[in-house]
Write a structure and sequence with these properties.
single chain, alpha+beta
Amino acid sequence: MKKLSIILSVLLVIDALACRFNVRDVGFVDLGSEKYRLFIFVPDATPAAEVDSLKSIAYATYLESNVKAEVLTASSAAKSEAAPFLPRDLKKVEAVFVSPDGKKSLE
């Protein structure tokens, strides 16, 4: 009886010390973090087919990531929340990576 109580005590202590969760349990859980933003600015003269192609490529590329990509023409970007990040002289396609706190990370 004494051996059985010692074995049960050891098992209970081991169980109490073990963490209930491990990396596998929370590896694919969305913890509600804010997404990064990738603003892709294109000149207004860019053909609509190229803009649509760029939108579909950006969507497919970042579909399962924490990055939300947006393709915007210069005129539409000036009227949106991306306006502060719009390059002054947009002559070619440019992208700006913005962190969740609103700071420009990469250009």
